[in-house]
Design a protein that fits this description.
The complex is a heterodimer. Chain A is an alpha/beta fold. Chain A is 38% helix and 23% strand. Chain B is mostly helical. Chain B is 78% helix and 0% strand.
Chain lengths: 253, 288
C-alpha cells in the first residue's frame, strides 16, 4: 500500500487544515495541511527551525494554533469548547529529551496517566504498565529511577508511557536525536515494531535511512509549509522540488 | 574523594610505584591530621587563657555561669521553651499550608487567573514588607480591643496568627521559586499524557519542587523556632521571657545562658537533620 492511497482514505485519523502558528513576528507555520490515515506513518523532514516540532505540538494542543483546524477522528480539536486534556489523553507524544519524571520510578512513570487520567485502579494499572514495559524490553527496570537508565532505555520508557493509554496516534519528536549513535538502534527497532502493529504515527527525524524504511509518506517542510509530500522513494529518491534536493544533498555531504 | 588502598579482586598485586605512593599518602594524611589537632588545641588554649585571665572573669563567671542559678531556673525556662515548641509546631503546619496556597496562586497562568495572581502578589508584598513585631502589636493588641463577639481574645492565638501571616509570605516565595525551577518540558510531558493543570502540579511539579527547596525551608524552620518567642511581647511567657523573670530576682544572667543552650539543643539536631535530608536527596537524584 502506498502513502498516497492511505491518505486518500475516507476518514483520516488526523487531519490538519491550513494550520498557522507564529511566535511573535516569527511565522513558523504559514499554511500547513496534512492528512494521516489509520495505520499510516508520516515522517516530517526539514532543517531545524522549519516547524516540524511546532507542528507536532500544535497537533497535541501543547501550542495553540493561530489559525486553521486540527481534526482527530473528524472532530475539530482546535475548537476552544473541546476538552484539551481529554484530547491529549488520546494522543501519545514522545520528546527528544525523553522528559521522564525523575521523582517517579520507571513503572510509576508509565502508570501515572492510567491511574490519574483514565482512572484505572492501581492493580490493573500496574499490570498494564508492566506489560507495556515488557513490550519495550524493560520490565526488569520497573523499580529503577529514570536517571539510572541509559538514554536509549529512557526513551523506550517514554514510548511505553505514551503507548500505555492506547493512543489513536503517536507523535514522535526527534526521538533519537539526543541518543548516542550505538543506542539509536534499540529505539528505531521499537518504532519499527509499532509500525508493523498498525500504530498511526507522525515522526520528525533526521534518520533518513529509517524514514525510507518505515514511512508511508514523507513530508518536506520549509519556509513554514510542506514543500513536497509523497512516498519515501519519490521525496527522498527523486525529489521534484529544488529546495528538497538542496536539503537532501546537504545531509549527504 | 575516597582514599584507600585498592582491594585486589584478581591476581593483581600493587606495583612498587603504587606501594610507594600508598605509603606516601598514608604519611601525608597522618601528618596533616596531627598538625590540625595541634593547631586547634593551641587556638582554644589561647582563647581560654585570654578569657579566664581577664580582670572581670570571676564576676563574669558568677553572673553568667552560676551552676546553682542554672539548676534553679531550669524548670521555669524549660516550661517557657515548651510554649516555644508548641507555637513553632502549630505555626509550621499553618505556614506550610498557607505558603503553598499563595505560591500556587502566584504561579497560576493565563489572563483569567490575573486576579488570583494579583491577590497572591499583594499578600506577599504586604506581609513580607511589614515588620513581624509591628504585626504582632497590631493583631495582638488591636484585634481583642475590637471586642467583637466570637473573636478570640487569647494573646497566644493572635501572636501565632501574626507569625503565620508573616512567615507564609516568605515561605510562599520559596515554594514559588521551587515551582518555577521545574523545567517546562516536565509540564509538557505531563500535559501530553492528558493530565490536567491541577494533576500536573500535584503529581509532577510539586513533588520535585518541594524536594528542591527543602534545604531553604529548613532554614525558615530554624528561624521560626527562635521567632516563636516573639509572642512574648504580648505578655505570654516563653523561654526568654521566663529567663528574664528569673534574672530580675537577683540580676544573675545565668538563666539567659540556660535558655540559649536549650535553643541550641533544639536547632542543632534540626540542622544535622537538614544536612542528612539534603545528602539523601543528592544521592537519590544524582544531580541536586
Amino acid at each position: 500500500m502506498t502513502g498516497s492511497a492511505l491518505s486518500s482514505a475516507a476518514s483520516p485519523v488526523l487531519a490538519v487544515e491550513h494550520l498557522r502558528k507564529a511566535f511573535g513576528a516569527h511565522v513558523v507555520l504559514r499554511d500547513v495541511s496534512l492528512s494521516v490515515a489509520q495505520g499510516e506513518c508520516v515522517v516530517l523532514i526539514g532543517a531545524s527551525g522549519s516547524g516540524k516540532s511546532t507542528l507536532l505540538r500544535c497537533v497535541n494542543l501543547l501550542e495553540r494554533a493561530d489559525d486553521g483546524i486540527v481534526r482527530l477522528d473528524g472532530v475539530d480539536i482546535t475548537d476552544p469548547r473541546v476538552d484539551a486534556d481529554a484530547v491529549r489523553s488520546r494522543i501519545g507524544m514522545v520528546f527528544q529529551a525523553y522528559n521522564l519524571f525523575p521523582h517517579l520510578s520507571v513503572l510509576d512513570n508509565v502508570t501515572l496517566a492510567p491511574i490519574r487520567v483514565h482512572k484505572l485502579a492501581p492493580e490493573p494499572a500496574r499490570a498494564a504498565g508492566l506489560a507495556m514495559l515488557e513490550r519495550v524490553g524493560l520490565s526488569h527496570k520497573a523499580a529503577a529511577r529514570p536517571d539510572s537508565l541509559s538514554g536509549g532505555q529512557q526513551q523506550r520508557v517514554a514510548i511505553a508511557r505514551a503507548l500505555v493509554s492506547t493512543p489513536r496516534v503517536m507523535l514522535l519528536d526527534e526521538v533519537t536525536s539526543a541518543l548516542d549513535p550505538e543506542l539509536v538502534g534499540e529505539v528505531l527497532d521499537l518504532l519499527r515494531d509499532l509500525k508493523s502493529d498498525g500504530m498511526t504515527m507522525i515522526l520528525n527525524t533526521h534518520e533518513m535511512g529509517f524514514a525510507r524504511q518505515v514511512a508511508d509518506t514523507v513530508c518536506f517542510l520549509d519556509g513554514g509549509g510542506i514543500v513536497e509530500q509523497g512516498s519515501p522513494d519519490a521525496v527522498l529518491g527523486h525529489p521534484s522540488h529544488a529546495r528538497t534536493r538542496q536539503f537532501l544533498s546537504r545531509l549527504r555531504v | 574523594m575516597v582514599h584507600g588502598v585498592p582491594v585486589p579482586t584478581d591476581d593483581w598485586t600493587p606495583s612498587a610505584i603504587e606501594r610507594e605512593r600508598t605509603a606516601y599518602r598514608t604519611r601525608a594524611t597522618r601528618r596533616s591530621a596531627l598538625v590540625a589537632a595541634m593547631a586547634s588545641v593551641a587556638v582554644l588554649a589561647v582563647v581560654a587563657a585570654a578569657v579566664t585571665s581577664s580582670p572581670g572573669w570571676p564576676a563574669f563567671r558568677e553572673t553568667f555561669f552560676n551552676w546553682d542559678k542554672a539548676v534553679d531556673s531550669l524548670p521555669a525556662v524549660a516550661q517557657g521553651l515548651w510554649l516555644n515548641i508548641r507555637v513553632m509546631l502549630v505555626c509550621a503546619v499553618c505556614i506550610a499550608v498557607l505558603g503553598m496556597v499563595v505560591a500556587i496562586m502566584r504561579t497560576a497562568r493565563g489572563p483569567v487567573m490575573f486576579p488570583v495572581r494579583a491577590l497572591g502578589t499583594a499578600y506577599v508584598d504586604l506581609f513580607r514588607g511589614l515588620p513581624l513585631l509591628l504585626l504582632l502589636f497590631l493583631l495582638g493588641f488591636g484585634m481583642p480591643s475590637l471586642r467583637l463577639a466570637g473573636l478570640p481574645t487569647s494573646a497566644l492565638f493572635w501572636g501565632g496568627l501574626a507569625i503565620t501571616l508573616s512567615y507564609s509570605a516568605y515561605v510562599a516565595e520559596v515554594f514559588r521559586s521551587g515551582i518555577e525551577s521545574i523545567h517546562p518540558s516536565q509540564w509538557a510531558a505531563a500535559r501530553s499524557l492528558g493530565l490536567t493543570y491541577r494533576q500536573t502540579l500535584r503529581h509532577v511539579v510539586l513533588p520535585q519542587a518541594i524536594r528542591r527547596v527543602t534545604p531553604a525551608l529548613m532554614n525558615d524552620v530554624v528561624s521560626l523556632q527562635k521567632d516563636s518567642g516573639l509572642v512574648a511581647v504580648l505578655g505570654v511567657v516563653d523561654a526568654i521571657r521566663a529567663a528574664q523573670i528569673e534574672t530580675s530576682v537577683d540580676y544573675n544572667f545565668t538563666p539567659y545562658v540556660v535558655a540559649g543552650a536549650l535553643f541550641l539543643l533544639l536547632t542543632i539536631p534540626m540542622a544535622r537533620f537538614t544536612d542528612w535530608l539534603a545528602r539523601r536527596q543528592g544521592l537519590r537524584s544524582g544531580v541536586l
